Amino acid sequence: MSAAQPVGPPGHPPPPPVGRRIFHLVAASGTTLLSLAIPQHPYMFLIGAGALFGLAVEASRFRVGPLNRLFMLVFAPILKESEVSEISGATWFLIAAFFTFFFYGPEIALPCLLFVAIGDPAAALVGGQLPGPRFWGKSPGGIVAFIAAALGMWAIVCAAGYGSWSLAVAVTAVVASLVEFTPTPVDDNLTVPLIGGGVMTLAISLGL
Q: Contact, 71 vs 57, CB < 8 A?
């Protein structure tokens, strides 16, 4: 008998596999929090090298059948259906981490990357279980879950002495949740932190 699949509300698609969301949360938040232990330039070198390696593996697997079969054997349980033939969200996140630090610096990159690391899986897991209307296959309740999880994580970071509260942070969390909710042709692991960084930069410049 095959393993039971996740079941969503009647009439709606099933929620994403829990294993994928746990991997996303642990890997993305761990990658981001590593920046607290490593100076910015070595960190960016490490993340940039990881992004280039990920792109090389992804490009190679699309052309080399045995490599793709090995890749799928290892990662199939945590891949979305689209990632079978497209770049995975993990690689997009590494690219986003590099460019978010490059363009905005650690003070803005840290919350923006944590928001997608924590908020994205929270939105998928909570929104996938909620009844009610769907837009682009997503529940609006996922927006609330995203914001709550993102700001909850930021509260922990602030309590540990690595961040501070501002209206700019709250505005960025809300905008990030809306970017994640809205469909775009580019993976949200890339768009959420980069757009969030731009919004936070603007909000800070306005004195928020």
A: yes
Residue 5, pLDDT > 80, answer no
| DSSP structure string for the chain | -PPPPP--STTSPPPPPHHHHHHHHHHHHHHHHGGGTS-HHHHHHHHHHHHHHHHHHHHHHTT-HHHHHHHHHHHGGG--GGGGSS--HHHHHHHHHHHHHHHH-HHHHHHHHHIIIIIHHHHHHHHTT--S--BTTB-THHHHHHHHHHHHHHHHHHHTTS----HHHHHHHHHHHHHHHS--SS-HHHHHHHHHHHHHHHHHHTT-
Q: Residue written as tokens 């090298």?
A: 49
- Measured distance CA(189)–CA(70) in Å, rounded: 24
For the chain, the domains span 18-205
pTM beyond 0.90: no
User: How confident is the model over 161-187, as pLDDT tens digits?
Assistant: 998 999 999 999 999 999 999 988 888
Q: For the residues 70-93, what does the mean pLDDT come to?
A: 78
d(CA 175, CA 154): 15
The answer, yes or no, to whether residue 131 has pLDDT greater than 80, is no
